[in-house]
Amino acid sequence: MSQAYRHVQHLAETIGPRGSCTEAEKKAANYIKTELDQLNLDLKEEQFKAVTSFSWVFGLIDLLLIVAALIFPTRPQSGMILALFAFVAFILESSTFPFLSHLIPKKNSQNLVARVPARSKPIRKVIITAHYDSSRSALNFSPKLVKGFRRNYLLLISAMAAEVLFYALAVFTPLSPRLLWLLSLPCVLYILGTFLTLLHREIAGQYTPGANDNASGVAVLLEVAKILTRFPLITTEVTLVATGAEESGTNGALAFLRRHRPTKDTYVINLDNLGIGQLTTVTAEGIIGTKAASPELLRLAKTVATEKDLALRFAPYKLLTTDGTVFLMRNYPTVSLMAFDEEGLLPNWHWPTDQASFVNPDNLDAAKELVLGILRKLES
């Protein structure tokens, strides 16, 4: 049994579900810290505050849109302004730019940041990220509904945009405000359904074991760290970042950027959901308009896969944000490495079946070789 798979077992089974900002998340951080300490790296645990669930942020946005519909018949301008405010907040939050989340109560989380110095003077820097918290399950992640997740998300965006449009037409044109309000009601009902789904998630959802998402990425990060300490790169400095509170809104990656402000020529490799399915280099990320991955890192990944005979796919990822999305949205040369099933989905995504028994150790080894190969190609 590979050491990488043992990491997955320990995180998913011994520690178990690791919700953002929970005691279990802290235990996972301590485990990762212990493993990295053994490598004698320059290691820091960096505390930050984070919301405990994305449900609170997006639930608040849904609630604002529902309130806008309730007040619109008597105060059209106020209803329009509130709906527009909520829609803009949704776009920003969905694109990893915190807005209303600043108003949500927060708890403690932490990043583990370890630096592997270059043997000589560094001429390039690389950040490797993997989050170690796990998500809470929800109805829309169930095996029967998850296939329609992107479609339902886009329908939600359309419903929000339509509500804003109807109210704007009512305020700025001679069209009947009452008629336009009635036309907006199906959109408001869809938003209400989404709000109730988020509420159900917080009441009845369970934190998942998080074997694939994302003990698998952490396992690969730890094994890459082990190799790099034995055989350091000559002119490349590597920073390993195990992020907390990713599942509640990519908070760990955002906290790392606020604290360190790396230069824009720093390469970023994000590891997420690597344990099941076909190893994939993600060519673009984003559910609201995709952001392209680094052409250079994509080219190097293809070269490494050919030379090492790794079965590697190239495909976009158009679902929820990752730590990689945070860096891409801020124009860092970034690539995410993930794995998808035959239908292009993340197996057991945010569901209680995300267990270690489903993780394929060969996937972890292949991902490790791919990361190390990319780093060595950057050297040359």
Rg over CA atoms: 22 Å
CATH fold field value of the largest domain = Aminopeptidase
Largest sheet: 9 strands, mixed
Poorly predicted ranges: none
| Outline | elongated
User: What would you call the structural class?
Assistant: alpha/beta
How would you state the average pLDDT, rounded?
97
Query: How far apart, in Å, are the first and last alpha carbons?
Result: 33 Å
As a percent range, the share of helical residues equals 40-55%
Spell out the CATH superfamily of the largest domain: Zn peptidases
How is the secondary structure organized here?
Elements: H1 3-15, H2 23-37, E1 42-50, H3 54-71, H4 76-94, E2 107-116, E3 124-131, H5 149-172, H6 177-204, H7 211-230, E4 236-243, H8 251-260, E5 267-271, E6 278-285, E7 291-292, H9 295-308, E8 313-317, H10 323-328, E9 334-340, H11 361-379
Parallel strand pairs: 3-4, 3-5, 5-9, 6-8
Antiparallel strand pairs: 1-2, 2-4, 6-7, 6-9
Helix pairs in contact: 1-7, 3-4, 3-6, 4-5, 5-6, 7-11, 9-11
Q: What is the compact description of this entry?
A:
The chain is α/β, with parallel strands linked by helices and 380 residues long. The protein has helices spanning 3-15, 23-37, 54-71, 76-94, 149-172, 177-204, 211-230, 251-260, 295-308, 323-328, 361-379; strands at 42-50, 107-116, 124-131, 236-243, 267-271, 278-285, 291-292, 313-317, 334-340. The chain has two domains: 3-51 and 107-137 and 207-379, 3-Layer(aba) Sandwich (Aminopeptidase); 56-99 and 142-204, no CATH class.
